[in-house]
């Protein structure tokens, strides 16, 4: 039995906070930002009919740019929530309030980033949203691709889908890295974005969420669907920063499950 088959996620902490819904701010932001963005960027939106209009759903997308988390809510036919660094909601002064309002307006839920328990708490927040019948968006690659290739998926998205029974709608984003490349402070207005929604995936035939093999096979199915939509070159590896120390290098070399 491999480590991917034997590793089981531990239950999230009982101290995991409840997700704070944006309420009126999100409703107002969606009614203003989405039409404005569609007017300015004229995004090509394909497969909207594939998105379930009610009930829990997970949008699993490739990740090329900061604006991916704006492109998906703008293109989706229903409200979408995603997790964002809690620091975006904790600023002070006019700038801090403006940043907090913007992220609430696009459906962001604050969460403390990190590995270990922080990562499990983030999954638990998303599970709570799905249990309320809402839609969440996640990036199986874990972080943005800086070279445009599609990296191997981490199993957290599959675990969430298998645990909750929510269908997964694969999303292929094209051109967001040209509208706002990594490192850019402002988006350009000269490029168009394509957002492709694939048919919902029922991952339950792979097995229970407690099975590492089921999580891996489900993740591979998700990534294959994203690849079919985005057409990206496959990297064949995980997208992770180079290890800085000897211990970290050993940990990356050993077989383990990337959540």
From TrEMBL:
<dbReference type="InterPro" id="IPR002123">
    <property type="entry name" value="Plipid/glycerol_acylTrfase"/>
</dbReference>
<protein>
    <submittedName>
        <fullName>1-acyl-sn-glycerol-3-phosphate acyltransferase</fullName>
    </submittedName>
</protein>
<dbReference type="Pfam" id="PF01553">
    <property type="entry name" value="Acyltransferase"/>
</dbReference>
<feature type="domain" description="Phospholipid/glycerol acyltransferase">
    <location>
        <begin position="57"/>
        <end position="176"/>
    </location>
</feature>
<keyword id="KW-0012">Acyltransferase</keyword>
<dbReference type="GO" id="GO:0016746">
    <property type="term" value="F:acyltransferase activity"/>
</dbReference>
<keyword id="KW-0808">Transferase</keyword>
<feature type="region of interest" description="Disordered">
    <location>
        <begin position="1"/>
        <end position="20"/>
    </location>
</feature>
């Amino acid at each position: 039995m491999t480590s991917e088959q034997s590793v089981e996620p531990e239950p999230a902490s009982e101290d995991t906070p409840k997700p704070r819904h944006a309420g009126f701010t999100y409703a107002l932001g969606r009614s203003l930002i989405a039409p404005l963005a569609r007017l300015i960027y004229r995004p090509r939106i394909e497969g909207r009919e594939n998105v379930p209009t009610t009930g829990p759903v997970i949008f699993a997308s490739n990740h090329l740019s900061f604006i991916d988390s704006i492109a998906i809510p703008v293109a989706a036919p229903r409200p979408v929530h995603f997790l964002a660094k809690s620091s975006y909601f904790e600023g002070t002064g006019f700038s801090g309030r403006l940043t907090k309002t913007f992220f609430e307006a696009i459906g962001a839920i604050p969460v403390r980033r990190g590995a270990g328990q922080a990562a499990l708490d983030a999954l638990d927040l998303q599970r709570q949203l799905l249990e309320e019948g809402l839609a969440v968006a996640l990036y199986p690659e874990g972080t943005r691709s800086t070279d445009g290739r599609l990296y191997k998926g981490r199993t957290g998205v599959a675990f969430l889908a298998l645990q909750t029974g929510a269908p997964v709608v694969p999303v292929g984003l094209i051109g967001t890295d040209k509208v706002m490349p990594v490192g850019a402070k402002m988006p350009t207005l000269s490029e168009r974005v394509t957002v492709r929604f694939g048919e919902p995936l029922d991952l339950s035939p792979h097995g229970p969420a407690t099975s590492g093999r089921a999580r891996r096979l489900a993740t591979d199915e998700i990534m294959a669907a994203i690849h079919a939509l985005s057409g990206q070159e496959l990297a064949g590896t995980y997208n992770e920063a180079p290890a800085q120390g000897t211990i970290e290098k050993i940990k990356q070399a050993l077989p383990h499950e990337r959540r």
